[in-house]
Amino acid sequence: MIEGQAMGAMGANCYLYACMESKKAVIIDPGADGKKIHRWVLEKGLKVDYILLTHGHVDHIGAVDVLRDLLGEVLVGIHVDDAEMLADGTKNLSSYLGTALVLKNADFLLQDGQEIMIGNGKLKVISTPGHSPGCVCFLSTEGLFSGDTLFAGSIGRTDFPGGSLEQLLKGVKDKLMILPDDTRVFPGHGEETSIGAEKRHNAYLI
Predict the structure, then answer these.
(1) How far is residue 188's CA from residue 181's CA, in Å, rounded to a whole number?
(2) What's the pTM?
(3) What is the pLDDT of residues 42-67, one digit of tens each?
(4) CA–CA separation, 130 and 134 (whole Å)
(5) Which of 45, 51, 63, 146 could disulfide-link 34, Cβ–Cβ 3.0 to 4.6 Å?
(6) What CATH number is attached to the domain comprising 118?
(7) Total domain count, the chain
(8) In this structure, is residue 91 part of a structural domain?
Protein backbone atom coordinates (compact mmCIF):
# COMPACT_ATOMS: atom_id res chain seq x y z
CA MET A 1 0.00 0.00 0.00
CA ILE A 2 1.17 3.49 -0.86
CA GLU A 3 -0.63 6.64 0.22
CA GLY A 4 0.60 10.22 0.15
CA GLN A 5 -0.46 13.57 1.58
CA ALA A 6 1.03 17.05 1.20
CA MET A 7 2.11 18.43 4.56
CA GLY A 8 2.97 21.86 5.89
CA ALA A 9 3.20 25.30 4.31
CA MET A 10 5.61 24.06 1.62
CA GLY A 11 3.39 21.15 0.64
CA ALA A 12 6.02 18.42 0.72
CA ASN A 13 4.55 14.99 0.13
CA CYS A 14 4.68 12.56 3.04
CA TYR A 15 4.09 8.92 2.17
CA LEU A 16 3.00 5.79 3.98
CA TYR A 17 4.36 2.57 2.52
CA ALA A 18 2.92 -0.53 4.16
CA CYS A 19 2.68 -4.29 3.93
CA MET A 20 -1.02 -4.84 4.54
CA GLU A 21 -0.53 -8.50 5.48
CA SER A 22 1.73 -7.70 8.41
CA LYS A 23 0.49 -4.09 8.93
CA LYS A 24 4.12 -3.00 9.15
CA ALA A 25 4.83 0.39 7.64
CA VAL A 26 7.32 3.12 6.84
CA ILE A 27 6.79 6.87 6.91
CA ILE A 28 8.74 8.64 4.17
CA ASP A 29 9.57 12.35 4.54
CA PRO A 30 7.38 13.62 7.39
CA GLY A 31 8.00 17.31 6.80
CA ALA A 32 5.34 18.79 9.07
CA ASP A 33 2.03 18.10 10.81
CA GLY A 34 3.33 15.26 12.98
CA LYS A 35 0.06 14.79 14.87
CA LYS A 36 -1.86 14.62 11.60
CA ILE A 37 0.52 11.95 10.30
CA HIS A 38 0.14 10.02 13.54
CA ARG A 39 -3.67 10.05 13.21
CA TRP A 40 -3.30 8.85 9.61
CA VAL A 41 -1.18 5.91 10.80
CA LEU A 42 -3.68 5.03 13.54
CA GLU A 43 -6.62 5.20 11.13
CA LYS A 44 -4.87 2.66 8.90
CA GLY A 45 -4.06 0.40 11.85
CA LEU A 46 -0.37 0.32 10.97
CA LYS A 47 2.78 -0.37 13.01
CA VAL A 48 5.53 2.01 11.85
CA ASP A 49 9.00 0.47 12.06
CA TYR A 50 10.93 3.17 10.20
CA ILE A 51 10.94 6.84 9.27
CA LEU A 52 12.98 7.15 6.07
CA LEU A 53 14.21 10.45 4.68
CA THR A 54 14.99 11.15 1.04
CA HIS A 55 17.15 14.08 2.15
CA GLY A 56 17.74 16.52 4.99
CA HIS A 57 15.88 19.72 4.07
CA VAL A 58 13.43 21.12 6.61
CA ASP A 59 10.28 20.56 4.55
CA HIS A 60 11.00 16.82 4.54
CA ILE A 61 12.21 16.30 8.12
CA GLY A 62 10.25 18.79 10.24
CA ALA A 63 7.97 16.28 12.01
CA VAL A 64 10.55 13.55 12.66
CA ASP A 65 11.04 14.11 16.39
CA VAL A 66 7.31 14.68 17.00
CA LEU A 67 6.63 11.29 15.43
CA ARG A 68 9.46 9.67 17.35
CA ASP A 69 7.69 10.72 20.55
CA LEU A 70 4.24 9.70 19.37
CA LEU A 71 5.19 6.36 17.83
CA GLY A 72 7.69 5.12 20.40
CA GLU A 73 9.95 2.41 18.96
CA VAL A 74 10.72 3.72 15.49
CA LEU A 75 14.07 3.96 13.69
CA VAL A 76 15.03 6.98 11.60
CA GLY A 77 17.24 6.56 8.54
CA ILE A 78 18.96 9.13 6.31
CA HIS A 79 21.91 8.92 3.92
CA VAL A 80 25.28 9.46 5.52
CA ASP A 81 25.98 12.56 3.41
CA ASP A 82 22.88 14.35 4.74
CA ALA A 83 23.03 13.03 8.31
CA GLU A 84 24.50 16.18 9.85
CA MET A 85 21.65 18.26 8.40
CA LEU A 86 19.24 16.92 11.03
CA ALA A 87 20.91 18.91 13.81
CA ASP A 88 22.03 21.98 11.82
CA GLY A 89 19.48 24.67 11.06
CA THR A 90 21.67 26.27 8.44
CA LYS A 91 22.29 23.06 6.54
CA ASN A 92 18.66 21.89 6.70
CA LEU A 93 17.61 25.42 5.60
CA SER A 94 15.27 26.02 8.55
CA SER A 95 17.37 28.95 9.81
CA TYR A 96 16.42 30.88 6.67
CA LEU A 97 12.76 30.53 7.68
CA GLY A 98 13.36 32.16 11.05
CA THR A 99 13.62 29.20 13.44
CA ALA A 100 16.50 26.75 13.48
CA LEU A 101 15.29 23.14 13.51
CA VAL A 102 17.56 20.88 15.55
CA LEU A 103 16.64 17.19 15.58
CA LYS A 104 18.12 14.11 17.18
CA ASN A 105 20.62 12.10 15.18
CA ALA A 106 19.44 9.36 12.85
CA ASP A 107 19.33 5.81 14.19
CA PHE A 108 20.98 4.38 11.09
CA LEU A 109 22.58 5.62 7.88
CA LEU A 110 21.38 4.68 4.42
CA GLN A 111 23.70 3.41 1.71
CA ASP A 112 23.25 3.02 -2.03
CA GLY A 113 21.81 -0.40 -2.84
CA GLN A 114 20.67 -1.10 0.72
CA GLU A 115 17.41 -3.02 1.04
CA ILE A 116 14.99 -2.41 3.90
CA MET A 117 12.33 -5.00 4.64
CA ILE A 118 8.85 -3.90 5.71
CA GLY A 119 6.86 -7.02 6.41
CA ASN A 120 6.68 -8.80 3.06
CA GLY A 121 7.58 -5.59 1.23
CA LYS A 122 10.96 -4.10 0.46
CA LEU A 123 12.48 -0.70 -0.28
CA LYS A 124 15.76 -0.37 -2.14
CA VAL A 125 17.88 2.73 -1.57
CA ILE A 126 19.05 4.50 -4.74
CA SER A 127 21.60 7.25 -4.15
CA THR A 128 20.86 10.29 -6.36
CA PRO A 129 22.89 13.27 -5.07
CA GLY A 130 22.45 16.67 -6.63
CA HIS A 131 19.54 18.35 -4.86
CA SER A 132 21.54 17.70 -1.69
CA PRO A 133 24.72 15.68 -1.16
CA GLY A 134 22.84 12.73 0.34
CA CYS A 135 19.62 12.69 -1.68
CA VAL A 136 18.18 9.22 -2.20
CA CYS A 137 15.17 7.59 -3.81
CA PHE A 138 13.37 4.49 -2.55
CA LEU A 139 12.27 1.79 -5.00
CA SER A 140 9.49 -0.68 -4.22
CA THR A 141 7.59 -3.13 -6.39
CA GLU A 142 4.75 -0.58 -6.41
CA GLY A 143 6.76 2.44 -7.46
CA LEU A 144 9.60 4.88 -6.87
CA PHE A 145 9.69 7.49 -4.11
CA SER A 146 11.78 10.14 -5.81
CA GLY A 147 11.98 12.84 -3.13
CA ASP A 148 13.22 16.12 -4.60
CA THR A 149 15.28 14.40 -7.29
CA LEU A 150 12.56 13.92 -9.93
CA PHE A 151 9.18 15.62 -10.32
CA ALA A 152 6.42 15.47 -12.90
CA GLY A 153 7.94 17.50 -15.72
CA SER A 154 10.90 18.75 -13.73
CA ILE A 155 13.86 17.95 -11.48
CA GLY A 156 15.01 19.17 -8.08
CA ARG A 157 16.67 22.50 -7.44
CA THR A 158 20.44 22.45 -7.34
CA ASP A 159 21.15 25.97 -6.07
CA PHE A 160 21.14 25.02 -2.37
CA PRO A 161 24.43 24.34 -0.53
CA GLY A 162 25.89 21.05 -1.71
CA GLY A 163 23.74 20.99 -4.84
CA SER A 164 25.01 19.89 -8.25
CA LEU A 165 23.05 19.91 -11.50
CA GLU A 166 25.60 17.62 -13.14
CA GLN A 167 25.32 15.05 -10.34
CA LEU A 168 21.54 15.19 -10.26
CA LEU A 169 21.12 14.70 -13.99
CA LYS A 170 23.62 11.85 -14.01
CA GLY A 171 21.76 10.07 -11.21
CA VAL A 172 18.38 10.53 -12.86
CA LYS A 173 19.56 9.35 -16.27
CA ASP A 174 21.81 6.50 -15.10
CA LYS A 175 19.73 5.14 -12.22
CA LEU A 176 16.10 6.19 -12.68
CA MET A 177 15.52 6.33 -16.42
CA ILE A 178 16.66 2.70 -16.70
CA LEU A 179 13.60 1.59 -14.72
CA PRO A 180 10.59 0.21 -16.64
CA ASP A 181 8.45 2.88 -18.30
CA ASP A 182 5.40 1.86 -16.27
CA THR A 183 7.18 2.48 -12.95
CA ARG A 184 5.03 4.85 -10.90
CA VAL A 185 6.91 7.83 -9.47
CA PHE A 186 5.86 9.42 -6.19
CA PRO A 187 7.73 12.75 -5.92
CA GLY A 188 8.49 14.95 -2.95
CA HIS A 189 6.23 17.70 -4.29
CA GLY A 190 3.37 17.67 -6.76
CA GLU A 191 1.53 14.93 -8.57
CA GLU A 192 2.42 11.32 -9.29
CA THR A 193 4.05 10.57 -12.63
CA SER A 194 5.82 7.64 -14.29
CA ILE A 195 9.26 6.91 -15.68
CA GLY A 196 7.84 6.64 -19.19
CA ALA A 197 6.07 10.00 -18.93
CA GLU A 198 9.27 11.69 -17.81
CA LYS A 199 11.25 10.13 -20.65
CA ARG A 200 8.75 11.59 -23.11
CA HIS A 201 7.91 14.97 -21.60
CA ASN A 202 10.50 16.13 -19.06
CA ALA A 203 12.44 18.93 -20.75
CA TYR A 204 15.49 18.28 -18.56
CA LEU A 205 15.76 14.69 -19.81
CA ILE A 206 14.88 14.90 -23.49
Answers:
(1) 20
(2) 0.97
(3) 999 999 999 999 999 999 999 999 99
(4) 8
(5) 63
(6) 3.60.15.10
(7) 1
(8) yes
